[in-house]
Amino acid sequence: MDTMSLLMQGFAVALTPESIMFAIIGAILGTLIGALPGLGPANGVAILIPLAFSLGLSATSSLILLTSVYAGAMYGGRISSILLNIPGDEPAMMTCLDGYPMAVKGKAAEALAISAIASFIGSFIATIGLVILAPILAKFALRFGPSEYFALFALAFATLGGITGKNQFKTLMAAAIGLMIATVGIDISTGVQRFTFGTLELFEGVDFIIAIVGLFAISELLFFLERHAGDGLKQVAVNKLKLTAKDIIQVLPASFRGAVLGFVAGVLPGAGASLGSFMSYTLEKRFSDKGEFGKGDPRGVAAPEAGNNGAASGALVPMLTLGVPGSGTTAVLLAMLISLNISPGPMLFQQNPDLVWGVIAAMFVGNFVLLLLNIPMVGIFVKLLSIPPKYLMPIVTLIASVGIYSVSHSALDLYFMVGFGVLGYILRKVDIPLVPIILGMLLGPEMESSLRHALVLSDGDWTILFNSGLSIGLWTVALLGLILPIIVGPLVRAKMARAKASEKDD
Amino acid sequence: MLNTLSLKSILISGAVALTIAGQAHAYEPARSAECIAPANPGGGWDFTCRSVGRVLVDQGYFKGNVQTVNMTGAGGGVAYAHTISKRDKDDNLIVAASTATTTRLAQGQFPGMDSKQVKWIGTLGADYGIIAVGKDSKYTTLTQLLDALKSDPTSVKFAGGSASGGWDHLKVLMTAQKANVGDLPKVRYLAFSGGSEALVQVVGGHVDAFTGDISEVKGFMDSGDLRVLAVLSEERLPEPFAAIPTAMEQGVDSVAPNWRGFYMPGNSSAESYDWWVKTMDELYKTDEWKDIMVKNGVMPFHKSGEEFTQFVNNQILDIQILSKDIGLIK
User: Which residues of A touch B95 (CB under 8 A)?
Assistant: First the structure.
């Protein structure tokens, strides 16, 4: 019951007018960004990190703002899936399967409302899961010594691509780029400078906030310039909402199952939201003997949306308790935490209970805000889809530049941001994923020092890396994570593609 | 006519000059001042700037505000270089500093810069070093731990939150040196990116001992997971830390305050320097500051002006000698 009282304290933090305000702002901005086709939650959070810095927010306020953006982007992602048949990111793909057909049938408003309810259930259940699981895992984390941490980081990299990952080689290459950038700066284990060339600004290494904003936000701008996309996209018109209680009750079981499944997938390293929404959808299809899956079945909208949002909250569990992010967006959030001088991991729950529980409570609050926002105000967000990006992108660039400059008041950082933007553009052109780069930069130094610590403790004996059941277990999962996608990946992807193709045939 | 006018103007300008001279003697600060925190928001330097800035305004030293500017980079090196090269004559700028600043100056990690290029104002408190072990450790006193090190310098492994050669590492070496442990370079130190990561490893039983500051250990001390063997202060600390013995009580003359203070630009006027020194002396005695110290676990430690400058130079010299002894610098 300790957890309950801590959660109540969290609500005391989350229900202050200031926190509620940031939750609402974050929810609106997140939904906006999520709704824009092509911009996923990782981009959304990356673009808005500088905003938190330039406003000079406290750690708690920044995190409340950004977790609301995260949740909002997961909600918003469904809007473009349903109306445009363009998923904002990979996890939202499954929502297209039944969402778009519903919209074509003139039931766009219902599809949007159902998906909002399902998203709410998904997030809500997963947040409860987070409340229960996180403190347990935080205690368990004490058993992690340097060798276990090293195995855990290896696992995080091995499972990076996820089961549905397309190209393991490119993923690993991206991670290697991140690890290389991470070696710049002072090496804490020896106190020696590496690759700094006597430049003071490089002594502490390359700031990953700059890398994130450059790679995600600035490269997006470059892509926009290339596309000359001056106009909004064509979309299905939205009808007037006619949703009955019966419609809602019909999708409730699917939403609950999707939420639980999504949460589990989110907690597991490497599985992530894509698998969460995919599994929820397939399970639902098997579960119901008949139905019109693929032709606009409401349950086909509810299940993946609940799974998607459940996985998003689930991914916060390993991030907060172990400091190892389970998804791209949580990697970005982790970078934010480190920049605010808050070290995630088991100590976070001991040292900053106000912050952790405040943020968790804020997730509950944010969810209610999102539900309230999304049902009556969905029309406004839909309208925003038709805002020409030529107005939007300059604002994004402005926020990014001002924010980066306010972090350290150094013009060099701005050059670095642009440099990373160009790098991001090139890498995206050749289909190299960006998230592993960020993860490499974030985890590289930790991984290196874990290995060194383990070897110092054992006086140079490498077998220390495999000397506990826990580390052997982690290595096994890491190995599986590396091999499975090569075997299972094509099968799962083929299934996903077939599901999509058969829907098109009808 | 012309003569009287010029005589008048001479008199007037003389009077003006006198007034200016009088004012210059009692330096008047500008409406607002700036405090550079050479790190991100949330850290120690940021806290020093923000809390002192608030007290300065609350106590009426400034009519405007004292703005905190975060200037991250090179462990304070970027802010140090900025102060020397771009703000050298600024009377209204102070920069937060701590033992980390002197450590880096001593080890030449601010290339081409030294402690004489700025003016050291004073300290407003300190965080004292401690050496601790997990609750299941076989060591119950500092003496036992040091005896183990004497017979084999690799027998006790330390974890701390600073880089190798940083303050947390140096504290262990200083203490070991005072206790006549031979072969200091062999003492094993594991560098973590923060004190809390290091603590978790010690509490989890993966590393033998923790070196850090008293402010970092309260949580695990209260829960009984951590046994603090010694605090590196001259006298015992006030409650709730009064039960912890000092190293000196245990026969090891090791004192390691991680002070929190300020420097200002090297060519700022002598009057403004005197004003800042006097102001810090006064501020240290206010109830508002005492209250902040208690709430944030900052311990009493005050030196200013000439005395502080001497202290900084001595500390740099001590660290240089030790760093050479253990082969960190040549």
Answer: none
